[in-house]
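Hi Y.,

Following your request, here is the sequence exactly as I used it, all 455 residues.
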Amino acid sequence: MMRWAVICAGLALTGCATVKPPEVPTKVQAIQKALPPPKAFTRATPTRPARSNVNIAEDFVSLHFALESGAQLPVFTRFETPITVRLTGSPTPSMQRDLTQLLTRLRNEAGIDIRQIPDGSANITIEAVTQEQIQDILPQAACFVVPNASSFEEYSRDRRKQKSSWTRLRSRERLGIFIPYDTSPQEKRDCLHEEIAQSLGPLNDLYHLPDSVFNDDNIHTVLTGFDMLILRAAYSPELRSGMTREQVQEVIPGVLSRLNPRGNTLPSQPVSETPRNWIKAVQKSLRPQWNTKRRLSAAKQAARIGQEQGWTDQRRAYPYYIMGRIEQFDNPQDALSNYQLALKYLQATPGTEVHQAYVTTQTAAYALAQGQGPQILPELDAAIGVMTRAQNASQLATLLLLKSEALNQAGRHEQARSVRLDSLGWARYGFGSDMVVRSLLQDVAEGPSTKNRGG
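Below is the corresponding structure, written out as C-alpha cells. Let me know if you'd prefer a different format.
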C-alpha cells in the first residue's frame, strides 16, 4: 500500500549524506547549462514469468488476501467498471509522461480498461504533493495509496474513519494516490508503478518474489512480466469483488492456465513463508534514524533467521547486501565479504539478475580502488544491460560512472568521457538535476580526483 524509502546508494552521485557546498548562483547556472538533457526510457521489455502456475496461483492468493502488515482481508476486491485516472496537485512534466506510458502498458499487457481524464470525478486520483506532507502522516513512506479518498485533504481529515480501512473494503470505486513532486523523476515514476498497481490489485508484498514490484526489497522499480500477469488475472471474467479466499483459490488455477500456458509446463517449487520476525529485522536494519550498530545488529538477526529457515534464495542474500551497505565506509573489507556472500546466494537463484547487478554496483567500486578497472569492464557491461532492461536510471547512472573510471584505468580516456556524459543524462532522471549539480560542485570544491587513472 505504500512505497517505503529505499536504501540510498553510496557512490559519487548517490551519497547518503546530502552535500551542500557553497553554491554560487553563476556556477550553478553554468553547470546546469553544460549538463546533457535528462534521459528517459521509452519502451518496456518485460520478461515473462518463469515459474510454475502452481506457485503463481499461491502467490496470487497471498498477494490479494493480506496487507503488508500481515492483517488478513476477508474478500477479493477490484474495480468492476472501466477505470478512470486523474492527475492533480502539482505534477511535473516527467510525471505525466511516465503516467501515460504506464497506462498504455496496463491496457496492452494487463488488458485493463483504464484511461486518464482531465477533470471531474475519477476512480483513481493521483495527487502530486510535497515530501513533507507525506512524511507528516507516514514518516517512512515515499508515497502511498488509500481507499475512498480523492484528495490529500480528504484523507488527512478522514484517515481514522472506517472509510479509510482496507479491511472493510468490499469493492474498489474511489482511491487516492499521493506522490511527492519534489523528488527525482525516477522516484515519481517508481511510485506511479507501485501505487497504481496496488490500487488496481494486490495490497500485499511478498519478500520471496524474485521478479516483482510487490516486494518490499524495492529491487524492481517498474512493473514486471509477473506483475502484469497478476493484474491481468485479477481482471479476468472468472473473478469478481466479494469472492472469498476459497472461491478465488478454486478458480485461479484455470485463469492462469488460460493466460499463462507456459506455466503449466514448469514444475512447482517449494516456497516457505517469510516469518514476521525476519521482516521486522530487515525493516529495522533500514531505519535511517538508527545508528550503525543497531542497524547492523538487526541485519545480522535477519541473516540468522534466513539460515535457520534454510533459505538459499534472494531472501538469504538480502541481509548480507544490507550489511555491506551499512559497513562499506567504516569496515570496507567486511562489507566486501558480505557483498560476496550475497552474490553467492543470488548466483544460485534463477531470476535474480537485477539483484546481482545491484551487488556489482558495489563490488566494482572495490575493484576500481585496486586499479582493476580493465578486468571488470565485462562485468560492468553485463550489469549495465540488466539495469537498462529493468529501467533503473539511478543504478544505470552509477554503473556508467564506474565504467567511465574503469575505461580511464584502461587508458581509453576519450571513451571514458563519452560514458561519463551518458551517465549524467541518466543521473538527471534517476537522481534529479539538483543532486547532479551538487555532486559536480562538490567535485570542483574537492579538486582533481586522486584515483588511479591507469594511464
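The radius of gyration is 22 Å.

Thanks again,
Q.
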